[in-house]
Design goal:
Largest sheet of chain B: 8 strands, mixed
CATH superfamily of the largest domain in chain A: Cobalamin-binding domain
Number of domains of chain A: 3
CATH class of the largest domain in chain A: Alpha Beta
CATH architecture of the largest domain in chain B: 2-Layer Sandwich
CATH superfamily of the largest domain in chain B: Pseudouridine synthase
Strand order of the largest sheet of chain A: 2-1-3-4-5-6
Strand content of chain A: 5-15%
Bound molecules: iron/sulfur cluster
CATH topology of the largest domain in chain A: Rossmann fold
Distance between the termini of chain A: 64 Å
Structural class of chain A: alpha/beta
Number of helices of chain B: 4
Structural class of chain B: alpha+beta
Distance between the termini of chain B: 19 Å
Helix content of chain A: 25-40%
Number of domains of chain B: 2
Shape of chain A: globular
Strand content of chain B: 35-45%
Number of strands of chain A: 19
Number of strands of chain B: 10
Helix content of chain B: 10-25%
CATH architecture of the largest domain in chain A: 3-Layer(aba) Sandwich
CATH topology of the largest domain in chain B: Pseudouridine synthase
Order of helices and strands of chain B: EHEEHEEHEEEEHE
Oligomer: heterodimer
CATH class of the largest domain in chain B: Alpha Beta
């Protein structure tokens, strides 16, 4: 619901439908029945934010409590932002149209580092002071944040009152409960935050002090006021019992992923050494096929979507994928609902799976071998063999597909120019496989897209100590692939190395970067994840002004005994495991996945999930 | 199989969505409602619906319509109204279902209410500006189309109009040529006025009704 003042701006901006709310299944409550107001902010556009599953889960869950009203806030695109500033209209929530200042909690989900500037910009547009300190002690406008980036909260520690570490479903509600209690007792924000720090899965950065060595590395990280020295992640142990919405807000305008999304499991058994999500969400916990089937059906019924996508980090690793697909296809055809199965592994694309998804829709196939040479794939523990990939492509071609997209990374640890050239060779091999497939689509030619992104070393991975390639090196490697491609059937595209550099700075940054962030906000930086707005030169100028060398964060090799900015946070996987994985990478040695053998990463301490599955005896 | 015309209003938040978005929203609602509507065949079957005359983004519509094919000839129209409304966002309300009497191509005119104001200026002034514009023999304006820009005279498309002075806006009731061959959007008229006076107006536009070439209401 928007005010008259906002309406006046709407016809002057692109796609006004994203600023008005009013969608099917949007939750509207009567303010006088509401005790706690939560503004759920996604620091990107409506189209991106509305596609995000985590937001849908928490929105529904909060609103299932009668006296909590959770509303949605997105970053206005630059044209709308300009109009809002010019007319003095503060950032508002879509449901009530009320400005951010009307809310008890202002929560952000942080999916990528490049959205940090949007987070601060949204606070500023909402008229909320950006730092914890400036917001004062009154128990309101509590700024909270969660999501994968919360695993290294340090670069934004000055701005967020508390972080949720791990999965938020339970801990959010516990914090809100504590808030009610503190409100009744008339307690101030500082005292409230101190008590929050005792809840498992909550990190209150203002309760910790960091000191540095002369060389800029961390000397000491000390809790104050009896706050816990280590913050442990929270996770949902029983996925069948954990909350899942039976309903999504159905957008009026087209969004990035405009379909129903059904989560099938959390975590990943694979242990690819570059993949942060694979470690943050350990151990793998699955939903049963019965639960998935029932939830899927309810979602389709309530939203009217005619497409469901099964979501996980690697869908073909779902242990009961075939029985599940059988259950789903039993009704999906009749109800004219199509199924899509993203995140398929190269070795997971069997005839059986192919036939199930083919019955409904034929779109391009996407695989992520991640590296071109076998040696490189062993380094990153992507346990995919060259022959498997060719076999899979042959299966797909025989099944009528002609378009294959392959995703790779460049700049991986130990990578040589030969490894880089192998990316082009792999593309070529796929093209040749097409022509060698006897029952390929007749009279057609294959289209192979080779896509290369730049590796960004992330916290909580075996590569967290690694330097990122410099921008120049990355450019050289991109060029090398381009020069190595010989076929017109291959399209090559690559991600901009500049953005990967900034991402690398913030991913492993420390609190010294808060100053840079604050200055970026003052200068009006926003939408760094968008080419329309991102300018590396502008950031480099800021770093210089603050006397900070970004290469210290992006391109420096850390030693195993350095105190890392995120060392006080525990995601269940032991540091010693990461070190041994890193050493194995240097030796081109792979580690079996969780279902083949347990490698004792530490996540078994939660007492659930794949760590306790019966493993088949291997001969 | 019966051709059925579903009549609805489009306002509030839904006023700000494009015709393409409206189309998707309607298809989704038809799918969710499980009404016996004919679906397209093929890999990705979806309900089949057509719109006799798309409505521009930003306009309110009080008498909009959409055509579908009903598979069950005896299906009660009343139930279509309730079931669809339960599946639609608040800003779209179905109020009537009829048989499609006229062919969609018969639409020849549309009537609009255009509320125009100039912030800080009296509404009487806007009324006079409008009357002067509409008194001109030609109203020329550059029209953007897929083929590029061209200058058109929209005066011949004005079938009838009246201007009324309201408290803080000028109300123009106007009937313009509409349909697939000769469609004139009232936004063009506002643009022509802005071109003439050099002012920027706030416009609130409602489409009221469609007519055939004989000026009979479209049914
Ligand atoms: S403890 Fe073993 S089974 Fe469990 S997540 Fe770690 S490696 Fe996998």
């Amino acid at each position: 619901m928007v005010s008259k003042d906002v309406e006046r701006l709407l016809l002057k901006v692109q796609k006004p439908g994203r600023y008005v709310g009013g969608e099917l299944n949007e939750v509207i409550k009567d303010k006088k029945d509401v005790a706690v107001r939560f503004a759920f902010c996604f620091p990107d556009t409506y189209e991106v934010g509305m596609s995000h599953l985590g937001m849908k889960i928490l929105y529904s869950q909060f609103n299932s409590v009668p006296d909590i009203w959770c509303e949605r806030v997105f970053a206005p695109w630059v044209d709308m932002e300009e109009e809002m500033r010019r007319h003095g209209i503060p950032l508002y929530a879509l449901e009530s149209g009320d400005p951010l200042t009307a809310f008890d909690f202002i929560g952000f989900t942080l999916q990528y580092e490049l959205s940090y500037s949007n987070m601060l910009n949204m606070l500023r547009l909402g008229g909320i002071p950006i730092t914890t300190e400036a917001r004062g002690d009154e128990l309101k406008h509590i700024v909270v944040a969660g999501g994968p980036c919360a695993c290294n909260p340090e670069p934004i520690a000055d701005f967020v009152d508390l972080f949720f570490i791990g999965e938020g479903e339970e801990v959010d509600l516990e914090v809100i409960e504590l808030f009610r209690q503190c409100k009744r007792e008339g307690v101030g924000k500082q005292a409230f935050l101190r008590r929050c720090a005792d809840i498992e899965g909550v990190y209150v950065p203002s309760l910790y002090e960091v000191s540095y060595h002369e060389d800029g590395t961390i000397a000491r990280f000390a809790p104050k006021d009896g706050a816990p020295a280590v913050i442990h992640k929270r996770l949902m142990l029983d996925m069948d019992k954990s909350y899942y919405p039976d309903n999504f807000v159905v957008p009026l305008v087209e969004i990035v992923h405009d379909r129903a999304v059904q989560e099938i499991f959390r975590g990943c058994i694979r242990g690819c050494r570059f993949c942060q999500a694979g470690f943050l969400y350990r151990p793998v916990r699955e939903k049963s096929p019965e639960t998935i089937n029932a939830q899927c059906r309810a979602l389709c019924t309530n939203t009217g979507y005619d497409e469901v996508s099964l979501s996980s980090l690697s869908s073909s690793d779902y242990s009961q994928i075939v029985p599940l697909l059988e259950k789903l296809t039993a009704w999906s055809g009749e109800e004219k609902v199509s199924l899509s199965l993203p995140s398929l592994r190269v070795d997971g694309f069997t005839d059986e799976i192919m036939n199930k998804i083919k019955t409904v829709r034929k779109s391009g196939l996407t695989f992520a071998p991640e590296a071109g040479s076998q040696r490189m794939r062993d380094v990153i523990n992507k346990n995919v063999q060259h022959d498997e990939l060719m076999q899979t492509c042959a299966t797909a071609f025989a099944g009528g597909w002609t378009t294959v997209k392959l995703y790779f990374m460049i700049g991986l640890p130990t990578e040589t120019m030969d490894d880089v050239a192998a990316i082009a060779d792999l593309g070529q091999d796929v093209v040749e496989t097409f022509y060698q497939t006897p029952n390929r689509p007749k009279g057609k030619s294959p289209r192979v897209t080779v896509s290369a992104s730049s590796f960004v070393p992330k916290p909580f991975t075996p590569f967290q100590w690694e330097p990122q390639d410099t921008i120049d090196m990355l450019h050289e490697k991109q060029q090398h692939i381009k020069n190595s491609i010989r076929s017109k059937k291959i399209t090559f595209n690559y991600h901009d190395a500049d953005t990967s550099f900034l991402e690398a700075v913030f991913a492993r940054g420390d609190r010294k970067l808060c100053r840079v962030m604050a200055l970026a906000c003052e200068r009006g930086f926003h939408f760094d994840g968008w080419n329309d707005c991102f300018r590396l030169e502008n950031w480099l100028a800021l770093f210089e002004e603050c006397g900070i060398d970004p290469a210290f964060y992006a391109n420096r090799r850390r030693s195993f005994d350095e105190i890392l900015p995120w060392d006080h946070i525990d995601y269940g996987v032991k540091k010693s495991f990461f070190i041994s994985e890193c050493r194995k990478a240097y030796e081109n040695t792979t580690t079996p996945h969780c279902r083949l053998a347990c490698s004792h990463c530490g996540a078994a301490k939660y007492g659930k999930g794949v760590c306790f599955e019966k493993r088949q005896d291997l001969v | 199989m019966k051709n059925v015309r579903i009549w609805f209003k489009k306002d509030d938040a839904c006023r700000y969505i494009s015709h393409l978005d409206l189309n998707r929203t309607m298809l989704r609602a038809l799918h969710k409602s499980k009404l016996p509507i004919w679906h397209t065949e093929g890999f990705n079957p979806h309900p089949f619906a057509t719109f006799p005359l798309p409505l521009s983004l930003g306009f309110r519509g009080v008498n909009e319509c959409m055509d579908v094919k009903l598979e069950d000839d005896d299906f009660p129209f009343e139930e279509i109204i309730t079931r669809l409304n339960a599946c639609l966002p608040r800003g779209i309300r179905v109020f009537k279902v009829t048989e499609a009497v006229m062919k969609a191509g018969k639409v020849a005119y549309a009537s609009f209410t255009v509320c125009l104001s100039l912030p800080g200026k009296p509404s009487g002034l806007v009324c006079r500006q409008l009357e002067e514009l509409l008194a001109c023999e030609h109203i020329e304006i550059e029209k953007k189309s897929k083929k590029g820009r061209k200058t058109v005279d929209i005066k011949p498309a004005v079938r009838d109009f009246s201007v009324t002075e309201r408290f803080d806006f000028a109300e123009l009731a106007i009937i313009l040529s509409a349909g697939s061959s000769d469609n004139v959007n009232p936004n063009l008229l506002v643009a022509a006025l802005e071109q003439r006076t050099g002012e920027t107006y706030e416009a609130d536009i409602t489409r009221n009704e469609l007519y055939n070439a004989e000026m009979e209401p479209f049914r």
